[in-house]
Amino acid sequence: MYNLGVFQTIAIDDIVYSTNILRNPRQSLDQLAVSIMQRGLIHPVVVRPKNNEYRYELIAGYRRFEACKRLGMQKIICHIVDVDDKEAYEISITENVQQQTMSPIEEAIAFKRYIETFGWGGVSDLARKIGKSQEYVSKRIKLLSLPESLQKDIAQGKINVSTAEELFPLSNTEIAENLGDYILENNLSAKEARRVVKVFKENFKDLDVSLDKSNNELEFLLPRQLTEEYIDDNNSSSANQSELLFRVANPLLKRCALGIRLSLRNIDDIIGDIEDDRASSTLDSFWITKELLMQHRIRLHEQLDQLLRQASKLKNLQKLQAL
């Protein structure tokens, strides 16, 4: 990508950081500093001339540069290239990907900036530049659609990427987060995670819990069914299956129940308001409105009862399996 340019020793004080450089401060510089002290700087850092200044901007080699500074070096060998902002970012991202100095989440953020923030090209363009497949780039970016807690676990290496990718089919953030916790605690493989996700897609495909910001009301649909046959896995015990179901489904059922209770409270408030304004309303409009509200109230109570029965059944199943 940048085979042209010149190699030259430059004073460290004459090198400044690029605003777009991909840094990785979480990795220790100790071993790298020892290696440079013993063997010298094998791979020069990459810089470009600053416009209208007798200084240089660091493009790639942040950790090597920091290690040399730590060693008290006054000068450093540099590969000087004349490139624009887009090319400079491509150099930086390519080196970091090839040397695997970034976490998967850091890669995802860098890829997304290239494509969406800067608008320098699409997935295929970036994939070609960094020598990776389009699928690799797309899946990395899709990691950013997972809950933040899962992204943190991925960045810290607690959950590997292939396992985390199995959660992509889950559109419900809360389910994905709870399943992620279960996968982490039980050290599930990607294959096992895929099986678990498949089960929940099949058994909870009608469950959708979301907060409608326009009216600040909780919208919900009840789960299609709760049965004892959730996981077809000969290697998993019934107790583990029950634990998984209780872990993921119970918070959702509670959240749905809360939404219903809030709706009931709102209906009661509205009924109280129209009764206060009864004198200013026609007799027919008052009773029609109140009757409609009461019918909605009855249906909500029926849904709440069904939810509580589902939750009770799930809790009893967990107790039985624990015996």
TrEMBL record:
Q: Which domain of life is it from?
A: Archaea
Ranges for domain ParB-like N-terminal:
8-97
Q: Show the InterPro entries listed in the entry.
A: Chromosome_partition/occlusion (IPR050336), HTH_ParB/Spo0J (IPR041468), ParB/RepB/Spo0J (IPR004437), ParB/Sulfiredoxin_sf (IPR036086), ParB_N (IPR003115)
Q: Is Cytoplasm tagged as a keyword?
A: no
One GO cellular component, as annotated: chromosome
Example of a GO biological process term: chromosome segregation
Q: What keywords were assigned to this record?
A: Chromosome partition
Q: Name one GO molecular function term.
A: DNA binding
* Gene3D superfamilies cross-referenced by the UniProt entry: 1.10.10.2830, 3.90.1530.30
Keyword flag Transferase: no
The family note in this entry says:
Belongs to the ParB family.
Spell out the protein name for this chain: ParB-like N-terminal domain-containing protein
